[in-house]
Design goal:
globular, transmembrane, HTTM-like domain-containing protein, membrane, HTTM-like
């Protein structure tokens, strides 16, 4: 699935394998595995091999070509992200630790799950723990609702990346953080996605040239200038495109 060989079938196989593993031993999986399972299903339903895949190469097009396809699988991923955060907020505010502002303090005291031990002055500070607890709820609620606002979307997603990164480096949460970042990619502007294959190809070509250190001919220099101009055009279209 990573290299795009029979992409949709590979995604379906991944989905079936994850489901079988979960049913075999339901005590070893967590919410991150559930998100990965759903993402595999969305990929199986979508034309995920339309670019940057061996499927595209086998179809006669180039590996780097970007294709326009129906957006409904992407919308499913976007809705899934909002529903995850909305359900998380609703379940947390109906408990006791989160409304009291002590949930983050409890989480940072789970010694068997900590990757980095938080200092006592942090976990024992009522003010800081209240800020962290309610701040987390605020970020999650923003990701559920405000992510649909074009102007606020970059800031909301940036706050989500910061929150999940801090969680990932302090608490063992499995694949949850990385799986959520995959859903974040569903909100990348279309023009940026279309330019991604070209930019990736240019980066690979430049890296290979630097590693080989071969003297470039005038023809190569002209080609490089054309690629740079195309990449600049992509960046300008991406910056002009509303999020």
């Amino acid at each position: 699935m990573t290299i795009g060989w029979h992409s949709r079938l590979a995604a379906l196989v991944v989905f079936v394998l994850i489901v079988s593993f979960e049913h075999r031993n339901p005590w070893v999986w967590n919410s991150g595995d559930i998100v990965v399972r759903l993402e595999a299903l969305f990929l199986a339903l979508s034309p995920c091999g339309a670019a940057l895949s061996l499927d595209q190469q086998r179809a006669g097009a180039t590996f780097w070509s970007a294709q326009r396809r129906p957006q409904w699988p992407l919308r499913l991923m976007q809705l899934q992200l909002s529903l995850i955060y909305l359900a998380s907020v609703l379940s947390k505010i109906n408990g006791s630790a989160w409304p009291q502002g002590t949930a983050v303090s409890y989480a940072l005291r789970l010694q068997d799950m900590l990757l980095v031990r938080a200092p006592d002055w942090l976990t024992e500070s009522p003010l800081l723990m209240n800020i962290a607890t309610w701040g987390s709820l605020g970020v999650e609620l923003s990701l559920a609702i405000l992510v649909w606002n074009h102007r606020l979307r970059p800031w909301v997603l940036a706050a989500g990346v910061l929150m999940h990164t801090l969680i990932m480096i302090t608490i063992a949460v499995g694949f949850f953080t990385l799986a959520m970042f995959v859903l974040y990619l569903a909100f990348v502007p279309p023009n940026t996605v279309q330019c991604l294959p070209r930019n990736t190809k240019d980066a690979v070509t430049k890296t290979a040239t630097m590693l080989t250190r071969r003297p470039r001919s005038s023809r190569q220099s002209v080609s490089d200038r054309k690629n740079d101009a195309a990449a600049k055009s992509c960046r300008e279209r991406g910056s002009a495109d509303p999020m």
